[in-house]
Amino acid sequence: MPVRLNLHGMVQGVCCRYYCSLYAQYFQIHGAASNLFDGTVEVLLDCDDSQRINQYCLALQTNPQNYMFYGKINHIDKQKYSGTISGDYQF
Fold first, then answer.
1. Domain locations in the chain?
2. Does the structural domain 3-79 have CATH classification 3.30.70.100?
């Protein structure tokens, strides 16, 4: 089932959506990311593998591949999602 992530921290204006796409490619997950008006980033993932999603979330927070990222993700809210996977940055 698709998942909705809400990324909190310094996540807008710091290449966060691109950073999310790099780790999505690394974990072979398709999805989309959008900046929200409240200063967070929403990431929608089309993935049924909860272990892979958890690894993805951990990688976003710890950046083990040392991808270029100018921000910091302090917290990730995760919930099931039943809508279409769309956003202003598709991967």
1. 3-79
2. yes
Q: How far is CA 50 from CA 23, 32, 53, 63, in A?
A: 15, 17, 5, 19
The model's pLDDT over 10-58, given as tens digits with 9 standing for 90+, comes to: 999 999 999 999 999 999 999 999 999 999 999 999 999 999 999 999 9
* Spacing of C-alpha 41 from chain mean position: 8
Q: How many CB atoms lie within 10 A of CB 20?
A: 28
Structural tokens at position 70: 């100018």
Cβ atoms 79, 20 nearer than 8 A:
no
